[in-house]
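FAQ
Q: What does a multi-component entry look like?
A: The components come first, one per line:
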Amino acid sequence: MTTTDTTTTPKKPKPRHAVGTRRTLTAEELSAYGLRDRWYPILPSHLLANGAMQKVTRLGVDWLLFRDATGRVRMLEDRCPHRSAPLSAGQHLGDRVACRYHGVQVDGTGTVVAVPGMPGCALEGRQSTPSLAVVEAADAIFAFMPLTEDSEPTPFELPDRLQQEEHSHFLNYVEWAGQWRFYMDNVLDPMHGAFLHGDSHSMSGGDTSARFRIRETDRGFFFEKTDQRGKNFDWVEFVRGAMDHVDLEIPYGDEAGPGGPFGIVGMSVPIDADNVAVFHWRTRKVDGWEREVWRFLYRTSLEEKHFAVLEQDRSVLEILAKDADTHEHLYQHDLGVSRIRRLYKADAKAQAKILAGEA
Amino acid sequence: MSQYLEVHQTHPEPFSPYELKLSGSIQEIFGRGVHDLPGLVSGLNDLGLHAPDGSSWTQESFRDEMRRMGR
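Then the predicted structure of the entire assembly, as tokens:
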């Protein structure tokens, strides 16, 4: 009796490149430059005019944003498929951009539509520049940042307060010279409100000591004080929706009028390993004349006060050592910080495995 | 890199002295704990602030102004 040897040598894992890079990122690099396969806010809508182009760096990759002749936003890797010159240095041609170097024309899908120097060349018709799925909503441009070229965008859904009519909102956008992870640590740490923001227009109330707990939800978790509510920055919800975000409320003083506390929907997108773009939508559940008055007061006065508070955060986050999150001595107030770090570390490992061809 | 750190992102144009005065007065009245529309309107009149046409504020004229400026 003969037997057939059916054993085969295991296939060697084939490493893959992260979209917009020419290399396989490690878990540490993914942690530093930002996790993928999720939606991120990219830029406020008003910063990209009709017919305009804008270069942005996100997750350590240079991208070109351009608004085509119909007003639709496109996002391409800022790199001509021919010789890699930045497309952002080229010319906006309505539905496409022309590279400044050799005039190669790339449309919003990343397809080369013309090679003027050599018509009929094989590059024509090829989709060779990464193009991201883009949605414009809540005054911002969002994009799905894929891990690999096989990644399929998940359904886009705005956070609750940004899609519910009863909440009015204003977007604030800033860029900080700090790591994106420190932004997440900061918002998962409500207790800093009583100290860093203790002299602010909104966070001077309440105790300077507290007990906290984590409360699980089906979409993330709450990190909240057990003994105080509605006096300061007393709770935060971390939500894993279409996009990771935080949701929280902070009381206003009497001078801000009726309508109760203001809410914050917060998100960040890494620019690179050392810089972060931060998006905060300040919201309020107000209707009728109360809504109009809040919007008037926000523009004339409150926006500046909110900005001063945000600057207090920046003043600390930008001077933290790059390795500030190693060898710390965390205490009970840092349960939220520990949780978010664990979660992101696991994400980074899982994504690194996919890139390494091991998952 | 140059950082985007703009304080006033919701209104590229500066406000007029009238708008700032109105804003400050509204906050002053709210600051006293008055949060209803009739109280706010009479508070503005008590402060000697006039509606855009020079007359006293009414709830209607105040709402018209806020519809315009608080979109």
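Q: Is there any commentary attached?
A: Sometimes. For this entry: Residues 48 and 54 of chain A are 7 Å apart (CA to CA).
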